[in-house]
Every structure is written in structure tokens, then in C-alpha cells.
Design a protein that fits this description.
single chain, 3-stranded antiparallel β-sheet, 1 helix, 7 strands, 10% helix
């Protein structure tokens, strides 16, 4: 049995490579007027390969990036553009009306606009005073 020397420097790079092996799109969430807006960078992904769901104020974006290259794996010097499926679930910062949400896809940017739910408004009640 032969011994394999421990190389902590290479172990660090192996751990980093594992972290980058999954494709996860970058996402921005912000409020605009009475809407919650989510933007996701999905460059190289066809809109028909993206599925968006809203359930109990959790937004889920799933999709598939197809490998468009016909170059064999062994001919790469470096391969950082990932292909495969992705899944992102986010708890929204406010309650939204899911059936009024709209999504657009332009130049690799997915934009989802979700109107915030109207909360019960404070109602003032006047007291009738009976004078005798």
C-alpha cells in the first residue's frame, strides 16, 4: 500500500471547485411602488426552460441551461460556463398576490413583478353619544 501525501493547498482548491460546480443564478429583490420585484440573471437560458412558482409567499425559480457546445470535454483548457439544471427558492419580504404576478425576459434578465397584497386597512369608528 502506498501513501499519498496530504496537500492542504490543493484541498482548498478542490473545495472551491465543488462550490462552483452548481449553477445558481444571481438574484436581486427590491420594492417598487406597491410591488415586490425579483430580477435574476439567466444568460444563455431559453425562457421556455424556466419555471416560476409562487406559493405562500415563497418564490421558486427552476430551469435548465443546455450545453450548446459541441467541443469534447477533453479539449477544454478551462470550463467555467455551467450547464444543467438550477433551483432557487426565496422567501419574499412581503405578502404578494400571486395570480397578478407578471414575468418578462429580456437580454438574459428575468424580471418578476408581484403586487403586494392589500392589508386590512385601519378603520376609524365613531362613537354615537346618546344625549338625554
Amino acid at each position: 500500500m502506498s501513501l499519498i501525501p496530504w496537500t492542504p493547498f490543493l484541498d482548498t482548491f478542490d473545495a472551491l471547485e465543488k462550490n462552483f460546480s452548481n449553477f445558481v443564478p444571481a438574484i436581486d429583490i427590491y420594492e417598487e411602488n406597491d410591488n415586490v420585484v425579483v430580477e435574476a440573471t439567466l444568460a444563455g437560458i431559453k425562457p421556455e426552460n424556466v419555471d416560476i412558482k409562487i406559493h405562500e409567499d415563497v418564490l421558486t425559480i427552476e430551469g435548465q441551461r443546455e450545453s450548446s457546445s459541441e467541443i469534447e470535454e477533453k479539449n477544454y483548457y478551462r470550463k467555467e460556463v455551467r450547464s444543467g439544471s438550477f433551483h432557487r427558492s426565496l422567501v419574499l419580504p412581503a405578502s404578494v398576490t400571486a395570480d397578478k404576478a407578471k414575468a418578462t425576459f429580456e437580454n438574459g434578465l428575468l424580471k418578476i413583478v408581484m403586487p403586494k397584497e392589500e392589508k386590512a386597512k385601519t378603520k376609524s369608528i365613531k362613537i354615537d353619544i346618546n344625549k338625554k
